[in-house]
Design brief:
By secondary structure, the protein is mostly helical. It contains 14 helices and no strands. The chain starts with a helix and ends in an 8-residue tail after the last helix.
Length: 364
């Protein structure tokens, strides 16, 4: 009888797990928002294709991701908030590119960026995607094959992509505010030490550890390891962290097959640009409804975003295997970091030591 009860309990848990993994969320996101996001990332690619410099367009396209931080507030607040995010994106990318020339400082710099950006995002209650794209910009910049004299050019290209995204967000805001009323700007809640400092330090250290493990394994261009780690850690609870890890690994596995099929197509600069715009539209339509399904399209999008300039120069299978290993490794480290992040005992012990190193008047 006990065996039967145990089996029934296991079946119930499996049904619960499966139900949470396949559940779709309701969303009031209008189609114009994914469309403008696709324009923000796609127009720089089309301009790069026109001038025969797709690599330049890819850098500016990365800056176009700042459009996703536009809040649903009044236009005045929306644009100030977005321009602040654009400055942060440019700064993170610049630090990442400069760390490329000092390999020993790569892990400390990225860890510092992850801690600082997460603190700022938590203090000012920045909504999803939170610190994710700031860390992505720094990580991709750190592995960009550039020379010293090209640093101003690369940072300028990304900043121009941010400015284009702000311009698109301005006209999108004028249009969308005719269809729906803006949300009120909520006052910032009191910032607690645990939420702003403790969580940010744990998240930043986990991101740094993921990159350190990637370097120890001698993974080439492992820019996606820390990004995957951070994406998993952004779950509000340990259950959310676990669900994100499962969604990310399963979605990546399917997405790699999709990427393999897309890479088999006869792609040129124009087709790559249009394809990335379609993928961006699909991702922003699905990500608020089902994260795992969105990851299926995020996987080829990120591969094109970071490696489109090198497509056709080698076997795509090797590149896809490397990206799968990056994401699995980052997700595993992210789950381990999530266990620490949501462990009351760890938070008590680590938080006590951290408070001793922090000025008393920094936060309550």
């Amino acid at each position: 009888m006990s065996d039967r009860n145990a089996w029934s309990h296991i079946q119930s848990r499996l049904r619960t797990e499966f139900g949470q993994l396949v559940a779709f969320n309701r969303s009031d996101r209008r189609w114009q928002m994914p469309f403008c996001a696709a324009l923000s990332t796609g127009l720089p690619l089309l301009i790069g294709a026109w001038f025969g410099h797709l690599d330049y367009g890819l850098v500016s396209s990365l800056g176009g991701l700042v459009f996703l931080y536009a809040p649903n507030t009044a236009l005045s607040h929306r644009m100030v908030f977005l321009m602040a995010c654009a400055f942060g994106m440019s700064a993170c990318f610049a630090l990442g590119v400069m760390s490329h020339f000092f390999p020993l400082l790569l892990v400390p710099v990225l860890t510092f960026i992850a801690i600082l950006v997460t603190m700022v995002c938590r203090f000012y209650m920045v909504g999803p995607p939170g610190s994710l794209f700031f860390i992505m910009a720094a990580s991709i910049g750190a592995y960009a094959p550039v020379e010293v004299m090209q640093v101003p050019l690369q940072v300028g290209l990304l900043t121009m992509g941010c400015l284009l995204a702000c311009l698109i967000a301005f006209f999108y805001g004028i249009y969308i505010l005719r269809l729906q009323a803006p949300q009120a700007v909520a006052p910032l809640p009191p910032a607690s030490f645990d939420f702003v400092v403790l969580d940010s330090v744990v998240i930043g250290l986990a991101v740094g550890v993921s990159l350190l493990v990637a370097q120890a394994l001698q993974l080439e261009r492992a820019y996606w390891v820390p990004v995957s780690c951070l994406a998993v850690l952004q779950g509000a609870t340990l259950r959310a962290v676990w669900n994100k890890q499962v969604h990310r690994i399963l979605g990546t596995a399917v997405g790699l097959f999709l990427a393999w099929g897309l890479l088999a197509l006869p792609l040129d600069a124009w087709r790559v640009s249009l394809l990335m715009m379609v993928l961006t539209f699909l991702v922003e339509t699905l990500v608020v409804r089902h994260y795992g399904l969105a990851v299926v399209f995020i996987t080829p999008l990120t591969i094109f975003l970071a490696d489109a300039a090198h497509i056709g120069q080698g076997a795509p299978e090797a590149m896809l295997q490397a990206r799968l290993l990056d994401i699995v490794l980052g997700s595993v480290v992210g789950v381990l970091g999530g266990v620490c992040l949501h462990s009351p005992r760890f938070r008590e012990v680590f938080g006590r030591q951290l408070r001793r190193l922090t000025p008393r008047r920094l936060l309550p």
